[in-house]
């Protein structure tokens, strides 16, 4: 549940700036603000002018993207005498690993805020509204014990990068990749010598806490994620011959394996690609028709992403042993077939660190994939800590592995 915050904690303004005086930032009130926020969100597509854009439908729940985190808040910005809602921002706080070089057997945790869902009306740009929303969210984060704040954006989103880096003093921190694979009409076979094993939430938690102890952004409350109704399960791929000598209930790892979990984002929000030419639309439709009529050809069809659709996020991705890459590809084929049987799932999405070697084993379409940018800020620069500043740590001392929390997507 979200915490209540007073208007005194939310509003600190520069009275010398007339434009700033007209901005009032307060906590979202569902009964009062829901319709206005939905209207504002409906005006905001992602994409460059003149190019196809991506529209997000929150399905009548403006806090759907943060609802699954225990500590979260949504702020709205009112402007002018009429108090029109012209901006929104969301944020949540969690405890995650900050990475280490493996010199200590225990993970190093830190409390961090995640900033997401910043929207400003196109008719009220250049008034400092976005900056004020970020500043007030940072204040809420500090009050609730967060030491750092971070945000993620498409590396080509110049407006967002300029706001956070130039005006809000964030720094570029990590550059992961978002890898996207379409879900086709045809079935993807899994090799006959590979077994796909479903792993219980309890055993998954044990595995993940060991696998990602030295990674960055691994959430301390991983058990809540694995038990969430949006989690479709954790699956492990192993050679069938391994099953003769390996008991999953023992808690030990097989000699070679691949593992991942599947998160159902389509119950949180849906997406739609807009602004595609009639010719491209017809070409995409043609690939789907051919794939549906003759699935044995395994045509690499483009799913219908021009109507509202959902996707599965694959996370907790890890492999070990000589057969790891092959096992991982089989796991993705298994996940693809799960999506194929779900009429609303169009894509499989994963996000991995820039230098994570597992990136090469993940199937994707490069045209659908993109580079992400994570920016970070230390919220209290005057606070002294016995630990090194995470942002100033040497890259060589940090894990190449970033754990992507599915609740952040």
Task: Describe the structure in your own words.
The longest helix has 17 residues, at about 325-340. By secondary structure, the chain is of the alpha+beta class. Helices cover about 25% and strands about 30% of the residues. It is built from 9 helices and 17 strands. The chain has 2 domains: about 25-175 and about 375-380, Gcn5-related N-acetyltransferase (GNAT) (Aminopeptidase), CATH 3.40.630.30; about 180-370, 3-Layer(aba) Sandwich (Aminopeptidase). Helix 4 links the parallel strand 6 and strand 7 (about 150-155).
Provide the descriptors you would attach to this structure in a database record:
single chain; about 400 residues; alpha+beta; Aminopeptidase; 2 domains; 14-stranded mixed sheet; three-stranded antiparallel sheet; 17 strands; globular; disordered N terminus; Plant_NAT; GNAT_dom; Acyl_CoA_acyltransferase; acyltransferase activity, transferring groups other than amino-acyl groups; N-acetyltransferase
Report the C-alpha radius of gyration, rounded: 22 Å
The biggest beta sheet reads: 14 strands, mixed
In whole angstroms, the N-to-C terminal distance is 19 Å
How many separate structural domains? 2
Task: Count helical runs.
Answer: 9
Record field, number of beta strands:
17
CATH hierarchy class name of the largest domain:
Alpha Beta
Give the low-confidence spans: 1-18
| CATH architecture grouping of the largest domain | 3-Layer(aba) Sandwich
Roughly what percent helix? 10-25%
Shape type: globular
Strand content: 25-35%
Using the coordinates shown, work out and report the CATH topology of the largest domain: Aminopeptidase
H/E series? HHEHEEEEEHEHEEEHEHEEEHEHEE
Structure classification: alpha+beta
Q: Mean pLDDT, rounded to whole units?
A: 88
């Amino acid at each position: 549940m979200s915490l209540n915050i007073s208007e005194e904690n939310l509003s600190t303004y520069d009275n010398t700036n007339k434009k700033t005086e007209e901005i009032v930032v307060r906590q979202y009130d569902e009964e009062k603000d829901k319709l206005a926020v939905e209207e504002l969100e409906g005006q905001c597509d992602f994409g460059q002018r003149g190019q196809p854009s991506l529209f997000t439908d929150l399905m009548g729940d403006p806090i759907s993207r943060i609802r699954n985190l225990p500590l979260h808040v949504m702020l709205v910005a009112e402007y002018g005498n009429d108090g029109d809602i012209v901006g929104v921002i969301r944020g949540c706080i969690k405890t995650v690993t900050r990475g280490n070089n493996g010199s200590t057997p225990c993970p190093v945790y830190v409390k961090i805020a995640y900033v997401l869902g910043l929207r400003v009306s196109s008719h009220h740009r250049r008034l400092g509204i976005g900056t004020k929303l970020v500043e007030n969210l940072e204040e809420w984060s500090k009050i609730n014990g967060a030491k750092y704040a971070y945000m993620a954006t498409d590396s080509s989103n110049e407006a967002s990068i300029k706001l956070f880096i130039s005006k809000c003093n964030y720094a570029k921190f990590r550059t992961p990749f978002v890898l996207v694979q379409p879900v086709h009409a045809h079935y993807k076979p899994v090799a006959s010598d590979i077994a796909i094993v479903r792993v219980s939430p309890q055993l998954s938690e044990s595995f993940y806490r060991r696998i990602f102890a030295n990674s960055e952004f691994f959430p301390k409350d991983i058990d809540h994620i694995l038990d969430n109704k949006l989690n479709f399960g954790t699956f492990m791929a192993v050679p069938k011959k391994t099953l003769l000598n390996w008991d999953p209930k023992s808690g030990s790892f097989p000699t070679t394996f691949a593992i991942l979990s599947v998160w159902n984002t389509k119950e949180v929000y849906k997406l739609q690609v807009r602004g595609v030419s009639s010719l491209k639309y017809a070409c995409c439709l043609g690939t789907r028709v051919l794939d549906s009529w003759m699935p044995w050809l395994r045509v690499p069809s483009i799913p219908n992403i021009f109507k509202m659709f959902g996707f599965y996020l694959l996370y907790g991705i890890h492999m070990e042993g000589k057969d790891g890459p092959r096992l991982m590809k089989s796991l993705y084929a298994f996940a693809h077939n799960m999506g194929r049987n779900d009429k609303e799932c169009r894509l499989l999405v994963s996000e991995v660190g820039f230098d994570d070697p597992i990136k090469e084993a993940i199937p994707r379409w490069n045209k659908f994939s993109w580079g992400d940018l994570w920016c970070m800020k230390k919220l209290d620069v005057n606070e002294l800590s016995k630990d090194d500043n995470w942002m100033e740590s040497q890259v060589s001392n940090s894990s190449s592995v970033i754990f992507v929390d599915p609740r952040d997507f």
